[in-house]
Write a structure and sequence with these properties.
Elements: H1 3-24, H2 33-43, H3 50-61, H4 66-87, E1 97-98, E2 101-102, H5 104-107, H6 110-129, H7 137-151, H8 156-165, H9 173-183, H10 185-198, H11 207-231, H12 234-237, H13 243-246, H14 252-256, H15 258-276, H16 285-294
Antiparallel strand pairs: 1-2
Length: about 300
């Protein structure tokens, strides 16, 4: 896959996701207008759309196209955005900056931010349930099941609960991996499987290598995130740099040091490449996304 073809494909995915989000979100002219404005503010802030790219890459890998996968990608972005809005709240991580702009509770207020998350999550499932493509009811239900698992106590919510409970405490590598397999990794895993289910050529024999690849990419994303938090300035990160250390939160860097964290990222990248080799076309665009994750600047 040439770099140019990937970049064009990436731009196409992001453009269609942005357009789709605009179409599925309630109009800011409709009551309650402030809540709807805040939903647009949160969802359409400039992000990398990594999870959307994974959805569409996995659909492409199994014989589909962007149009067939776009509603699945939008549903993932809605759940991801809801999780960010809630994670930033004063009762959670208490962050003032996200994607280079004030967090929702700062730009609006805390109650509105809470309601934004409450509204985005059911909207995500509505998008999945009503996607206007020729997809079987069985597959549709399976996608909804995967997303609900990734968003619940065995996924993001459970990971956040563990994260909050461990502030100021030491965590082993296996404990950190468990926490982040839920808080970060679960949605990466769901993105890959939900996207693959959009494909017309997806077979169960590919499920385990696909899950393995997504698992490594998701964990790698978190390790790199911890490295960037410790080594990059706020203006590069788009969020408050060094906050994990100030808040006494266990991360790969605070637990094992910057050098070891970089080694862990390299090890995860190697495992990702091994998993990609078990997929059609050595992972196709998923291989390019893995490079983005492990080599990102911010």
């Amino acid at each position: 896959m040439s770099p140019n073809s990937f970049e064009q494909w990436r731009r196409d995915v992001v453009a269609q996701v942005e357009q789709g989000l605009d179409q599925c979100l309630p109009s800011i002219d409709h009551v309650p207008t402030v809540l709807h404005e805040a939903m647009h503010y949160a969802t359409k802030s400039p992000g990398k759309r990594i999870r959307s790219l994974i959805v569409c890459a996995c659909a492409d890998l199994f014989g589909s196209n962007i149009e067939r996968a776009i509603h699945s990608a939008i549903s993932i972005e809605l759940v991801h955005t809801y999780s960010l809005v809630h994670d930033d709240l004063p009762c959670m991580d208490n962050d003032d900056l996200r994607r280079g702009q004030p967090t929702v509770h700062v730009a609006f207020d805390e109650a509105t931010a809470m309601l934004v998350g409450d509204a985005l999550q059911p909207l995500a499932f509505n998008v999945l349930a009503t996607q206007p493509i020729n997809i079987s009811h069985e597959v549709r239900v399976r996608q909804i099941h995967l997303l609900s698992e990734a968003a619940g106590t065995q996924g993001m919510v459970g990971g956040q609960a563990i994260d909050l409970a461990q502030i100021g405490l030491k965590m082993s590598q296996s404990e950190l991996e468990l926490m982040h397999s839920k808080k970060t990794g679960a949605l990466f895993l769901a993105s890959a499987e939900i996207g693959a289910l959009c494909g017309l050529e997806y077979e169960e024999s590919y499920r385990e290598p696909l899950r393995s690849c997504a698992r490594h990419i998701g964990l790698g994303f978190q390790v790199v995130d911890d490295i960037l938090d410790a080594s990059s300035p706020t203006e590069v990160l788009g969020k408050s740099a060094g906050k994990d250390l100030r808040d006494n939160k266990p991360t790969y860097v605070t637990s094992f040091g910057l050098a070891r964290a970089k080694e862990m990222a390299a090890e995860l990248e190697e495992r990702t490449v091994e998993s990609l080799m078990c997929l059609p076309r050595s992972g196709g665009y998923l291989s390019d996304i893995a490079k983005l994750v492990f080599n990102r600047v911010s």
